[in-house]
Sequence to fold (125 residues):
Amino acid sequence: QVQLVESGGGLVQPGGSLRLSCLASGVTLDYSTVAWFRQAPGKEREGVSSITNIDGSTYYADSVKGRFTISRDKTKKTVYLQMNSLTPEDTAVYYCALALRTYRSNLAADTYSYWGQGTQVTVSS
Fold:
């Protein structure tokens, strides 16, 4: 079955960087879409970024545009989220999610069927 495992979270100071990884198993990435979401305590889940694996096209929420970069390595079945210039407002549990179809510019959580367990990102001095 499809499984997603996130890693790379941790504690970082404001202005710092982290790279999250999402390792997929039980699936090939070719005709899928993978997205990153986040949820901070007391807040609704927010879509952060998505990547359409058939051609590598990407999409970003306005809140992270210019700071975060999503990428993928299909041979490693891994999607990455490089996060730069982090602020305390980026503190959240980050989840990767996968849809077994090609979407573009899609951060609607209910369209993604498979989810990882999440990884905590804390930005604090």
The chain is about 0% helix and 50% strand.
